Amino acid sequence: LLIGVSGAPLEKHVPVPSPTKVELTCKLDDNSNLKDAQVTWKKGNETISHTSKTPNSWTIQLTVSDHSQLGNYTCILKGEKEISAVFHLEVPRIEGKEKPVITYEGDRAVMVCKTEYNAKAWMWYMTNGTELVPIDKILHTDKFQIKRQSASVNRLEILKLTQEDAGVYWCKAAFDLGTSKRRFELRVLSVAAPLKPFIAVVAEVAILVTTIIFYEVYSKRKQKRGEKEFDQTEQL
């Protein structure tokens, strides 16, 4: 990471799907005015030593062999002021749709999960209260279809949707160093749902027309009553 003159904390996510060697470097921008900086590296709250340095950069080398070696690695530079940068070593994240999946009864819903790296295995779950139920254990081809497009892309299709299918679903990708999950929310609307705004507008128009009619009838009656009173006055 290149640390600039602003001194704002920097962050970088480093995906690590399998055991490997990682080199992390903090480097000061050439325009930085931080002089004689004292550098400290930490994993979480534990101080670790850097393995190499130049006048403006400091590097640590890691051999990541299991999940416990993932986490946050921070370089802290102290001088006239203190600046820092954080590396997040983590299992690859799963990409997926952020917004709820919205569809209608009788239709189908499609949820897609992707990663930048090949996963060893994919799993799909549906929630039942606080419990996650593996879909492959209740898989019915007329309802659920799981399709592995590649080692990095997996999709779930739910067919013949009903209101009972609405809820939260999860996909999980397994890697050598751990797993990643992605949450999906499915909303199933009734077929009549798109008509509700139209029905509401029609109801408002009907109320308005009825009010106008009543007002006109009332006005005409009042006018006739006034004419009768005028005729009686002239007769008198």
Structural class call reads: alpha+beta
Helix content, binned percent: 10-25%
Average pLDDT rating: 81
Tertiary shape: flat
Number of strands: 17
Low-pLDDT runs: 232-236
Summed up, the domain count is: 2
Q: CATH first level of the largest domain: which class?
A: Mainly Beta
CATH superfamily membership of the largest domain, which one?
Immunoglobulins
User: CA-to-CA gap between the ends?
Assistant: 104 Å
- What kind of sheet is the major sheet? 5 strands, mixed
Total helical elements: 1
Task: Give the DSSP E fraction (strand runs of 2 or more residues).
Answer: over 45%
CATH T-level topology of the largest domain: Immunoglobulin-like
In the sheet with the most strands, the strands line up as 2-9-8-4-5
Q: What is the correct CATH architecture of the largest domain?
A: Sandwich
Radius of gyration: 34 Å
What's the order of the H and E elements? EEEEEEEEEEEEEEEEEH
Transmembrane segments: 198-218
InterPro entries: CD47_Vset, Cell_adhesion_signaling, Ig-like_dom, Ig-like_dom_sf, Ig-like_fold, Ig_sub, Ig_sub2
GO molecular function, one term: cell adhesion molecule binding
Membrane topology: Single-pass type I membrane protein
